[in-house]
Fold these 2 entries.
Entry 1:
Amino acid sequence: MSFILAPAAAPAESATAAGAMREPCYHCGEKEFRRGSWTAPVAGAPREFCCAGCLAVAEVLGNAGLIALYARRTEPAPRPDRDAGSDVAETAEAAAATGLVRARDDGTLEVALLIDGLSCGACGALCEAWLAQQQGVQHAALNDMSRRMVVRWAPEVTGLPDILRAVAALGFAATPYDPAQREQRAREERRALLKRGAIATLAMMQVMMFAGASYWSDDGVAPEQQRLLDWASMVLTLPVLLYSAAPFWRNAWRDVTHRRAGMDVPIVLGLAVALVASAHATWRGTGAVYYDSITMFVALVLGARYLELLARQRAAAAIETLARRQPDIAVRYCRWPGIAVETVHAALLARDDHVLVRPGALVPADGEVVDGRSAVDEAMLTGEAHGITRVAGDAVLAGSRNGEQPLVVRVMRAGADTRLASILRLTERAAATRPAITRTADRVATWFVAGVLTLAAMTAIAWIVIEPARALAVTVAVLVVSCPCALALATPAAATALTGALARNGVVFGRGDVLETLARVTHVVFDKTGTLTRGDVRLVSMAVADGATRDEALALAAALESRSEHPLARGLVAAADGTLLPEVGALRAVTGQGQEGVTARGGVRIGTPSFVASIAGPMPASLTAFADAAPAATTLVALGGDAGWQAIFAMADPLREDARAAVAALQRAGITTMLFSGDRPAHVDAVAQATGIADARAALTPEGKRDAIDALQRAGAVVAMVGDGVNDGPALAQAQVSFTLASGTPLAQWTADVVVLNDQVVQVATTLAGARRAMRILHQNFAWAIAYNLVAIPAAAMGYVSPLVAAVGMAVSSLVVVGNALRLTNVTSSKSVAVKVDHAEPVAEVAWKS
Amino acid sequence: MEILMLLIPLSVLLVLGIGALFWWSVGNGQFDDLDGPGQRVLADDDSPPAGPPGP
């Protein structure tokens, strides 16, 4: 028995129904319209139906090409004020104009829709299946936590208006996603739930007080006073049922009209049965009343849902902070280099526009500085907390904040093409693919609810036979005590809490369904350059000759190298950043040797030791000792001249500060770490030794890396590959899970499953630990739910559980699983390393000591 | 105990009144930010914060 209405299966049975209708409902002929408005386009116009079931059938008929059945009649005009799909054309137009609709490489269009009114995974599944069935729709995936759906369609077949109409036809409201609107909605949702919960809690307290009179008085309450108490309880219970419990009624109603068993159905049945019995008893003045059970149940379940809502919104907030960085307003030069400016919407900017970025303002688009000099803070995009000085010719990114001085920026990429927009899309896409385990949980929950309903019916029949007086109380207890929350509520809550916590640490998932795989990872394979190391050559240590000082030597070296584009030269210039460079004349490059020039103290040279020795004489003993002791992976650069030797610099691509911590954390977690690199063995061994990786393989081609991972996998390993995505693409694709660090990697190559935005390699360990913890918590929740239901439901069916105890038990069980899932909100990188980069200090002592 | 006939309906009215008050205060935004106002009181600067940009 299936409790999900499968739209694909409907046409056969509905064809006969359609043939029989002659009545006001366009489809089924029902005269009495149920509450709500059900309209859908059939034969080119919206039609009205009495209920969602008829409508779904009619739409399936439409899709199957059977609308000729309807076309033979003259149709009644739809009531315009109830037309749910009336404004879709305007909505779709606005979405296209503001860049919410995005063209993809394969010619399809994509939009993120905010779906209002979805409350459970089963509704989402129906919505997904329904849209996927629409003609021209190629992909529809819903993230039911944020209630956003990513829809992809072929523009030549269908359009956004049709898609919006299709969603509206199912009884949901769909709006193209817009962050500001989402915030507003989140606040409304929070307030509404708080109001409902507060009303229920207040009523519960007072009703318990009234009930307490009969529970705890020794000789009973006088009959007329008891009746008054019952009436008072009923007066207080009604607002709880009608207002606080309204979401339960609505959800259950939708489930029933779609012939599905959602988790609200047993709740509502229990409430309804308890209310009818209590009201009857109150009216007649005899019999048991359950007002205390009803109010307590509603109050506690709303409490659990409020907690879940807060977690969901907190998780979304981490990503929303990114969204809020997208500035709306840009100041554009009408005709650069003219000084006249106009204020325009940032979405209207085009390539090669010139914009003015005022001090303290957000950069509206990715571009290139053409005028001005200012420190730009890119913390939100790169995690780099301090401002970076940008001058003419430098690139700036949308969403970064300008510092003290105005900048003129030539726009390179605007609107949906900026890096910020790409990050947001990446996270949206990840959010739209749900972990397999939550899909499983949804399915199991549906069957579970169906089972509970069947069991409740059997219990009722059995008790009517055994002891009719108790049949009602026992049935209510069975309905109320069962708790599908661990499946339907806590699983998505755990997944979302983890995603939010990781997003705050700068980790975003490129795919939502990697959670289980992440938790099973046994081997982590690192790439070297750009992953464990920084990817650029830097000064790691230096030694100065007698009579020279560090600062002088560095400044002189930088002055000599200032014109060179060689990586070693750039490393030295960066190391001397901020010091005043001495004057050097007659600069000349000697190919393969170094640079030479003339200062006040005579000719100077920088380059290979032999190049310097030819004018400075043999190397002094102190410098020779340093050169001999330098690690194999470093390159030596000498500095000296007519006045003698000055210094020797050891240059290398240094380790990331947190590489060692990352490897150590992984090894502590029992994960095997490996290093696959295309670099020379001496360099690779040095990095392996410094980080503590035992298994390092050098001189591998990209294919070689892939084959090595393949060999590991055949031996049963679950491999996570950490790379920069540039030259290890095959290896990243071969591994079950791939990580990339975002820096320096073009966005188009962000194909990895997990992207570390802030470049902290230690976040790999944090992510794996978080995923393991999430799976552990999910298993705990499943175990708890199974144990609880196995004990509670049979006990209730046998009559050992009163409705009040059942209400408390179920609500407490919900709080337990939701609370357990929420522990994931605190996933932090406990071993996180404070990344502090100080160019002037040699990092050798930190990085290379083993 | 005749007084109960008065007190019980009175308690119901009281609960409904408190509920209505709470309902209003939530809708009024009193519970949107539980930390900010307290912090604002402690802040040294007594000048009013800059409002939203005018039309």
Entry 2:
Amino acid sequence: MRQSWPGELGEFYAMHADSAKRLAYLLTGDKELAEDITQDAFVKIAGRLGGLRNPDASAAYLRQTVVNLSRSHFRRKRVERTYLQREASMHRTETVEGRDVLVADGLWNELHRLAYRQRCAVVLRYYEDLSEQQSAELLGCSVGALKALTNRAMEQLRANVGSEARS
Amino acid sequence: MNLDQDVRAMLRERADGVVAAPVVPDGTVRRVRVRKALWTGGVALGVAAIAVAGAFARSAMWTDAAPVPPADETEQEIQQMRNGQIITSANAGQEWHAFDQNAGLFYYFKYWTERAFVFDQDGPVAKFDCPPSVDCEFATAFGPGPEELTVPGDQSVQVIGFDGKVRHTLEISPDSPVFIDEAPITDLAWSPDGNRLAISNEPDCGYGSDACEGKVWIVERDGGEPQLVFTERAPADLAWSPDGRSLTLLVSSDVVEFDDIAHDGVWPRLVALRLQPGQPVRAETLHVYDDVGLPAWNDVPDGWRFYFASAWSPDGSRIAVTSKGGVSEISAEDGHLLARHSDESLDCETSGANARRGCGLLAWLPEH
């Protein structure tokens, strides 16, 4: 049965907004921006979900929308570059409590130096726990390409975090 | 170290505690950042869950107000457009992503509905859904032919009609250096005669990465090997002079030197590439000063979103650039200041507490 919108949109928001914002934050490194992306994603969802035949697909559609909007954000940077650089420099000084703070900070910094699709691959595989097939579909590439993206990303993280720790 | 485990743990730690704006019992989201109009497809969803309504351009404001539906998108009026004058998307009352000076056409892509619009001063000319194989939002250029737009595809550059159908793909090899390094195309611009396409691209690097080096290429309409004409971070806002002999672009720097003094801050620079046939490409920086001789782009506070834009005058003698306090008209030849237009006259906000809004984009309409 098709979900009735907008009656259940609020419920859908309550169920998925936090996870959408977390994903956006991991992809962009900016909490305020992640909030914007989350709002935008729901705006987009609001216009489309009525046409979705399978309501179970709505969460996946939301995830796809967050990934696309995060990528859109990086392409908008051509007009907002300075803002981003300065925001990023502030985020790079954030600390992570617990565990190995230096390693965690280093990983976070290096994660955000990866190309967007590489970062996406890492977040989808290691945070969202999506399968290779699901991640590949979300990024619009083959499973082989997804594996290559993930491998290159992890190699880069290993090399750069390792060298940071040694220095 | 076990990298897999460390990455997994780091992501969970970072995401921990990140929560979205809460929903209150009446179903609205409190203190939602008003960002986009919710009223799409004629479905009155606005009164429901997410109070994201109303037109708002780039201004960020907090509100609990009930959503107000904007006018139907086909009835939007392009206000205050004046021939032979500079207009901004602030005073036009309408955003756009591309402008065709010869035809007086504007292009706008509404990304949350993925619908593209072409309009002129009198109103809508065409609207269509973006083909799934291309990216209609970020780098669309009018041309090369009439009623054609050029957009980036997957490892390609494609020409689509005003009906939204793909007409052809430019003959640029997928193995071309334009497409390596997963560097998305950030801007496209056809020369006025429609024979050369300028392309800028830049890798999707993370924040502050030194590896992010953008490039500007020129490719002939019939394809062939692209010519690399410029390399620096974040080239954007490509614009050809009306005679096709210069190509301007904006880049930003953290430090520039004026009068042998290094200045820290936000420093967009207007670069003019001089493209004389048979001559090497010459890149000139056109510094923009205000009317008292100070750099016109300083004092943009940290963290502010400020939109920089430029537009050529129809006769090619001047370039309009957004700057502190409004818009400056500078000489296209050497960059000296010719005229200033205040924020008030253009409905911009480039100084003071609301400077985040800026002027938006610029277009210089021809005399009719």
